[in-house]
Specification:
With 368 residues, the chain is of the alpha+beta class. It contains seven helices and 13 strands.
Length: 368
């Protein structure tokens, strides 16, 4: 049992670092189990409570039209028991629902959403408080609820949800007193909830979304070509730095600009990504070989977002690079920090590739 727990914990922490690529639109199938429960005021008035044997399940087909908005067609089955006045009532209910979903933060691995819609219900009562209600009914219902989706791989996610259903009838709980006051809108309709958990499989995806790449470093789907990177390096890097030669003494760095291609940061933050450290290590080596060299660490962004925000973010990222260099033994007096925001692009901001090139860190070698 301890071994199983360790596997679960390891799986949890590993998946926290997975950031599946979000698509602009997609199709998915979902299935899972649910716990339904009557929540009408009449059940409370008559001393009824939900039985512990309640259970259900669902199957869904979902169409995401954008990163935020989706429509979902679902089929649900619920078996509910209520006990009142020494009587146990059973309810078999099947529902077909059509709901609108709105995802609040689709770029996050765990994203909450709001669900609302309507559907048709077919239910049959057994051993109702009023035996005349032990028949089959075809009605409709209104749905309102919240949920959360956790994307743990490229095509799979876990989903948990709670939905409050207001039906068009007051016969669902086996008691149809016309004087009851219940329902979401204060009417005489029976209500119930379903708490569900299951999985979602995305079997078809559209183009990768650029929504989550705001202020981010170079990504797989917005990565410039090798030719573009090489051209940028040649343009901004002195030959003395990249030329492989054997010398008796360190090469003196001339006044120039170093472009640290590949220094990336976590989404919308100044936290370095793992692939950045080898490049910064190379920068430390060059600074150690030229102890009299002073540099200005410059942070740059693309033009997505406000100018004020980009200026602040670029300075924070430049400060992060400075802190790393100081931690590796570089004298702080040799380093200054400045954020330039979006003011000095080296590529076209109208394309994803160009924006990736503009999100960069540069070293400006100052006069000794």
């Amino acid at each position: 049992m301890n071994g199983f727990k360790k596997v679960i914990i390891l799986f949890f922490f590993l998946t926290l670092n997975i950031f599946p690529q979000l698509a602009r639109d997609s199709w998915s199938l979902g299935f899972g189990v649910s716990y339904p429960r009557l929540m009408s005021i009449s059940s409370l008035q008559t001393g009824a409570w939900a039985g512990i044997g309640n259970y259900g399940g669902y199957l869904t087909l979902q169409r995401n039209f954008s990163e935020h908005v989706a429509l979902r067609l679902s089929g649900n089955y619920s078996y509910m028991i209520t006990e009142s006045i020494n009587r146990t009532q059973a309810i078999n209910l099947a529902a077909a629902d059509f709901d609108l979903l709105y995802y609040f933060v689709p770029c996050e691995v765990l994203t909450p959403y709001l669900a609302t819609g309507f559907g048709g219900i077919l239910f049959a009562n057994d051993n109702s408080l009023l035996t005349k209600l032990d028949v089959t009914y075809l009605e409709y219902q209104f749905n309102l609820g919240i949920g959360a989706e956790w994307r743990f791989s490229e095509n799979w996610s876990l989903r948990a949800e709670g939905i409050y259903h207001t039906s068009s009838t007051n016969k669902l709980d086996g008691y149809d007193n016309p004087g009851e006051d219940k329902g979401l809108f204060g009417g005489n309709s029976d209500t119930y909830i379903t708490l569900s958990a299951g999985v979602q499989f995305y079997f078809s995806k559209g183009e990768p979304s650029a929504l989550c790449d705001l202020y981010d470093g170079i990504t797989i789907n917005e990565c410039p070509s090798l030719d573009e990177i090489e051209e940028l390096i040649i343009k901004h890097t002195p030959k003395e730095i990249v030329k492989e030669v054997v010398v008796e003494k360190p090469v003196e760095v001339k006044k120039s600009q170093w472009v640290l291609v590949g220094v990336n940061f976590q989404f919308n933050s100044a936290q370095l990504t793992p692939e950045s450290y080898p490049i910064l290590f190379y920068a430390v080596q060059n600074l150690n070989e030229n102890p009299d060299t002073k540099v200005e660490i410059q942070g740059h962004t693309d033009n997505i977002g406000s100018e004020q925000y980009n200026m602040k973010l670029s300075e924070e990222r430049a400060q992060t690079v400075r802190d790393y260099l100081v931690a590796k033994g570089i004298d702080p007096s040799r380093l200054t920090v400045k954020g330039y925001g979006e003011s000095m692009p080296v590529a076209d901001n109208s394309t994803p590739e160009g924006r990736s090139l503009n999100r960069r860190i540069e070293f400006k070698v100052l006069e000794k």
